[in-house]
Structures are given as structure tokens and as C-alpha cells.
Amino acid sequence: MPIFYDTHAHLDYPEFAQDMPQVLERAEGAGIAKIVAIGTDLESSVRALKLAERFPSVYAAVGWHPCQATAAPEDLRPSLREMARHPKVVAVGETGLDYRRGSGESPESSAADEAGNKAKQAEIFRQQLEVAAELGLNCVIHQRDAFEDVVAQMQPFIGKVSGVFHCFVDEPAAMRRVVATGSLVSFTGIVTFKNAGNVRETLAATPLDRFMLETDCPYLAPVPYRGKRCEPAYVREIAELVAQVKGCTPGELSLATCATARSFFPKLGQ
Ligand SMILES: [Zn+2]
């Protein structure tokens, strides 16, 4: 059975509080050998790290999500640094920029609030890039309607910090720009959605060694589970569709995506 990794899972979310051992058992049964639990603020990062300490197949990324930016401390770096030194912390994030209206905490905010929020997002994104650079880690990037600004903020870190532009749904031209700077993209269950022909087009154009697989669970369950709680085991369904689109065998996809993940997350091990 080909092995896959779930490189982006919100295992610390309340949706998984009741049945974590079963969720991980199903993942193992489906050949999902490693899972990266993604932190979205300091508390969430601590929870992700605790899961990584408790379960051998779980690793953690520690960071602060742009949609929570207003609640972030002035200086995130000291707490992040301390956590990120842990042997099972494989990346910083998720971080990035999200300019979609209503995705922050105050959907009815004024123009001044919005400008302040963007500035705070940029500030904590920069802090996370700095910590990643210091510790030799890469970043898990969330971006919505902010592609140009994300690329611009990462520019000074090229060669030191790569990013995985997670849940990638942009066009092939955007993917090429990401890849040209040494960063990666990753694809979720969206690739299985009937109306996601454009995402499959981008996937088809992405070099086999420049992307990873993820669920972004509990969200974005692939077909045939669409609309239900997503979980890491469903990387299998995503992988089947991705192999078809790439015209390769599941075994070839397994080798390529797992090797990419191990080089992107240097502490993921073999
Ligand atoms: Zn996420």
C-alpha cells in the first residue's frame, strides 16, 4: 500500500476532541504515515505540540494565523522560538495574509480598522518568517486575496525560508511564481470537487516534485465525503484523484510527495 502524509491537519480543533485515537487509527489504516498538526495561535500551537508528543505519527507546526491577527501579542517571537526548538516542530505557521472581507474578526470593520488589521497581519507574518529563518525551518503559508503581498513579504527571505502555499487554488501562473522562488504548493480535497476544474488544471501544470498533499481537516472533505468532517485518512481519496490528474501511479505519487515533504520539513525524519 502506498504511503502518504497529511501535511496540513487541524488536529487540535474541537471537532477531534472526542475520538483522536480512532482518527489516527483510520489514518494509519489508510497508509497515512505522518501528519502535521497546524497551530493557528499560541494556544492552538501548544495543543498541536502536545498531540505530537503523545502520538508518534503526529508532528506540529507552530504559528499564528492571519485571521486571528488582532489578538496576537506585540512580539510573538519569544514564545514561538521556544516552541519551535522542539524536535517535533517541523515548521512555522500557519502564517501569511488574508485580505478577504469578513474573514477577520470584525466583518463590519471600518476602513481604518481594516488598514490596522492588514498592518498587524504583516507584522506577525514578518516575525514568523524571522523565527523560521533563525531556526532553519520553513513556513506554512495561508493566503487569500493577498498573493502579491505575500510574495513581496517573502522576497527578502528567499534562500533562507521556503513556504508551502497551502490549499492552493490559484492559477498555473501563480503556481509557477511560487515554484520559481523555491517554495511549494499543496492541494486539498478541493481537487476532487466537481466544480474545481481550474484547480485540477493548476495541479496538472505543477511539477511532480513541487507539491504536497494535505486535508486541511476538519474542513474540505474530498468526494465522496464532501460536507462531512474531514480527517487525515482521506488523503487516500485525494491521492487517488491526484495520481489520475498527474498520469502517474499511486506508488510514484507516494515517492514524490513524501520526498518533497521530508525535504520541506527537515525534522520530519524518514
Ligand atoms: Zn489551515
Helical fraction equals 40-55%
Order of helices and strands: EHEHEHEHEHEHEHEHH
Q: Write down the oligomeric state.
A: single chain
Hetero ligands: zinc ion
- Mean pLDDT equals 96
Count the E strands.
Answer: 8
Q: Low-confidence parts lasting 5 or more residues at pLDDT below 50?
A: none
Number of helical segments with 4 or more residues: 9
Strand line-up across the major sheet: 1-2-3-4-5-6-7-8
The separation of the N and C termini measures 17 Å
| DSSP strand content | 15-25%
Helix/strand-derived class?
Answer: alpha/beta
Form type = globular
Q: What is the radius of gyration?
A: 17 Å
The largest sheet, given as strand count, sense and whether it forms a barrel, is:
8 strands, parallel
Features:
alpha/beta, eight-stranded parallel sheet, 9 helices, globular, binds zinc ion
Task: List the SSEs and their pairings.
Elements: E1 4-9, H1 20-29, E2 32-38, H2 42-54, E3 58-62, H3 77-84, E4 89-98, H4 111-135, E5 138-144, H5 147-154, E6 163-165, H6 172-180, E7 184-187, H7 197-205, E8 211-213, H8 235-246, H9 250-264
Parallel strand pairs: 1-2, 2-3, 3-4, 4-5, 5-6, 6-7, 7-8
Q: How would you portray this structure in words?
A:
By secondary structure, the protein is α/β, with parallel strands linked by helices. Helices cover 40% and strands 17% of the residues. The chain is built from 9 helices and 8 strands. α3 (77-84) runs parallel beside α4 and α8 (235-246) packs across α9 (250-264). 47% of the residues are buried. The model has no long low-confidence stretch (mean pLDDT 96). Residues 8, 10, 38, 94, 216 line the site of zinc ion (ZN).
